[in-house]
What we know:
RNA-binding; 4-stranded mixed β-sheet; 3 helices; alpha+beta; Ribosomal Protein S5, domain 2; about 40% helix
Amino acid sequence: MKREERLRKDYQFKKVYKRGKSRVADHTVIIFRKNDENYNRLGISISKKVGKSVVRHRLKRLYSEAFYQLKDAMNKGYDIIIVARKGAAVLKFADVLKELTGLFKKGKILP
RNA sequence: UGAGUAAACCGGGCAGUCGCGAGGGCUUUAUGCCUUCGAGGAAAGUCCGAGCUUCGAAGGGCAGGGUGCUGGGUAACACCCAGUGGGGGCGACCUUAAGGAAAGUGCCACAGAAACAAACCGCCCGGCACUCAACUGAAGCUUUUAUCACGAAUAAAGGGUACGCAGUCUUUAAGUAUCAUUGAAACUUAUAUGAUAAAGCUUCAGUUGAGUGCCGGGUAAGGAUGCAACGGUGCGGUAAGAGCGCACCAGCAGCCGGGAGACCGGCUGGCUAGGUAAACCCCACCCGAAGCAAGACUGAAUAGGGGGGAAAUGAAGUUGCCCGCUGAGUCCCCCGGGUAUGAGUCGCUGGAGAUAUCAGGCAACUGACAUCUAAGAUAGAUGGCUGCCGCUCCUUUUUGGGAGAUACAGAACUCGGCUUACAGGUUUGCUCAUAAU
RNA sequence: GGGCCCAUAGCUCAAUUGGUUAGAGCUACCGGCUCAUAACCGGUCGGUUCUAGGUUCGAGUCCUAGUGGGCCCA
């Protein structure tokens, strides 16, 4: 994933949080908002309540990989933040992929 | 073979495919392609020690903090190695905050006579007073006994007796009392006085012993307690006791010998000094402070202005305080004006570096030489899927099936340590027990 | 990354320089009062003092290591 396809600054996150729409699943929340670009940008937020360092890093990689696999099918022009909820430590990659697919369909990002 | 002890190490492997970060190269400079590398023994906790950086100095003192057996290693350390003492284990071995309590202060609850300084109870000696007991002597008394003397009060006869005798026996008479018509039976004694002896009692004196109280002295053996009681046990010794003397043990001081030292061994001496310093403290040594969000650079910006006040009799800074140092680019208020993507680059990985050999050293470690270069992100890379094997668990149809992010855990300036977490496995040295040869 | 603080009953807090059985208020439960509820009155229960080890005769308190929570910085 290129550096431009990630949300990197605090003001970018704040914009999405303030104006974005959200969809919720059992272990994951997404918040998304239209941007002015012709590509999607991703931010991932995992709080310390989810687990320790190893758990959080692993979850982030799983989300990132799942987003990569879904990327080509998605509508373009969105800033998306993925937030892990408390029980997310038990997830495997297949579960993550399933959950994200469902969420994106709910948000009409995925046709 | 079993049990144990110490140390070192591994901590999934191979292959394919899709991705991620960094370096290098090629290219149409937009991207793309090729190639190399890419988490740990603890990366963790942040408990110590350093490097490095900054602080108009980092100078002195106080305060504060740390370390604490000895010698070595190291850049340094609270780490490591080798030893000493104490404790544990049959042993290999393990463990130990281990300076000073004869510099001072504090504390030692409850209990206990008493918690370190003597006293109390007790034991012993002496004096005084009182009480009791025994013995001796003197005086007095008599409720008692024996003997003698005296001796009132009925006779006779006989037996008996050496002779007598009222009092030893028989008979008769008389008297008294009871019952009573006669009569019968029974009794006939005792006391006082004097002497001697014995015994007892009272008083006084003396001696001895015991007890009580008071006073003076000796002693610290014993005193139910307590974690702990002016060294422990035993024998002698003493008025009672006591290191007062002796033996053994523990401790102290001095001397001699060994060792680099902690310390060890021996001899001699005088006999004693409770515990607690992870209580204050004393002694020796060490420590300037803050930390890569340090800090430097580029770009942009807080601007640049005006007025008033404080201040060279010292603003502000400098470690908590004082001294000392620097010395105006200081502080406060008002007016008006301006600004918002808190960015990027460096620090940032070649370093007290890794591996092997040789040499020195018991070892930690050090030196020489050779080879190698081994993550560097910044919303933060190291991941997903598939196949085979290995491991663990479950199931059981046992050449099977299923589950498992496969233990603990994820670099953030870098090193040296410590501590904590860790499925399972490998290797080596040593000890003990048993068996066989 | 770095610096610092806290932990005692279900909750909020005490506990002198280490001392004998860790207290108080609220809560909960039981009883009383009331036609009933609240308020009020009386009583009872409730603690491995975050965990482990050590110093000490004795630890909530002192020391060491860990666990959990919270705060600060440009």
